[in-house]
């Protein structure tokens, strides 16, 4: 065989992996002609499915790896993640601009989030790989970058729906540590004595709150005020 030869196979994306197929092609059986040098992962991505979305693969009914090479006549069934593998702890994220509205909520819940406005895909991918962060994006091309080991294509477009999706998929209510991280800069907050921050508090806050946290980097005092209460009201609704 030369490297220019092609082989024929059938790809069967299961469940939510079909979200990546063009609407008119949401046939669960795709018959494809591919290069003999392709891996299963390559074939899935050529059909629009990022490797980060694939939990498992069966070839002709037997479990194989997504990095395995394809063979003539393969019937490849792809299985999606339905919930995140919680073997990864702690949950640290790298968030793309199209999911930006979730950044402050995730930090408020205590999850570390790497985020920069207008960041180039290459840099986001590199930081995620170096810092072992889970990429959250609505850009499936970004998730197809090889160096990204873990990521999630966020289906929802609206911020509240996105958060709802993330809470369910990553089981965030179980892993959250609210009020531990600065929602502006991601730095872990430290305890602050009321007496030490008293002169910086609005009178109503000084009268109504006893617990305070402080961000060294932003020089900002936190208390469980309106933002925090709104966040928890939102979480209860999700
Ligand atoms: Zn800060």
Write the layout of secondary structure elements.
Elements: E1 6-13, E2 30-35, H1 40-46, E3 54-59, E4 62-64, E5 75-80, E6 92-95, H2 103-108, E7 112-114, H3 121-130, E8 134-137, H4 140-143, E9 151-153, H5 159-169, H6 172-175, E10 190-192, H7 194-197, H8 203-208, E11 212-215, E12 220-222, H9 226-237
Parallel strand pairs: 1-5, 6-7, 6-8, 8-9
Antiparallel strand pairs: 1-2, 3-4, 3-5, 10-11, 11-12
This protein binds zinc ion.
Q: What would you note in describing this structure?
A:
With 238 residues, the chain is of the alpha/beta class. The chain has 9 helices and 12 strands. It folds into 3 domains: 75 residues, Beta-grasp domain (Ubiquitin-like (UB roll), Roll); 95 residues; 53 residues, no CATH class. Strand 6, helix 2 and strand 7 form a beta-alpha-beta unit. The termini are far apart. 28% of the residues are buried. It binds zinc ion (ZN). The site of zinc ion has 8 residues, from loops.
Summarize the structure.
The protein is α/β, with parallel strands linked by helices. It contains 9 helices and 12 strands.
Task: Provide the descriptors you would attach to this structure in a database record.
single chain; 238 residues; alpha/beta; Ubiquitin-like (UB roll); 3 domains; 4-stranded parallel β-sheet; 9 helices; 12 strands; binds zinc ion
């Amino acid at each position: 065989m030369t490297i220019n030869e092609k082989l024929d196979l059938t790809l069967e994306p299961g469940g939510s992996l079909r979200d990546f197929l063009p609407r008119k092609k949401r046939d669960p059986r795709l018959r494809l002609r591919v290069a003999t040098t392709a891996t299963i992962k390559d074939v899935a991505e050529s059909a629009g499915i990022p490797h980060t979305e694939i939990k498992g693969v069966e070839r002709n009914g037997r479990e194989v790896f997504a990095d395995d090479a394809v063979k003539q006549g393969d019937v490849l069934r792809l299985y999606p993640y339905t919930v995140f593998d919680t073997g990864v702890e702690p949950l640290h994220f790298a968030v793309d601009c199209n999911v930006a509205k979730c950044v402050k909520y995730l930090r408020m819940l205590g999850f570390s989030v790497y985020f920069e406005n207008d960041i180039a895909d290459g840099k986001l991918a590199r930081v995620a790989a170096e810092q072992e962060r889970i990429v959250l994006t609505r850009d499936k091309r970004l998730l197809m970058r090889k160096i990204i080991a873990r990521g999630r294509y966020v289906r929802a477009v609206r911020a509240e729906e996105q958060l709802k999706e993330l809470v369910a998929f990553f089981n965030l209510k179980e892993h959250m540590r609210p009020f531990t991280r600065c929602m502006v800069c991601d730095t872990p907050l430290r305890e602050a004595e009321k007496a030490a921050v008293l002169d910086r508090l609005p009178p109503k806050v000084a009268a109504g709150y006893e617990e305070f946290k402080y961000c060294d980097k932003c020089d900002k005092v936190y208390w469980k005020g309106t933002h925090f209460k709104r966040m928890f009201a939102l979480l209860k609704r999700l």
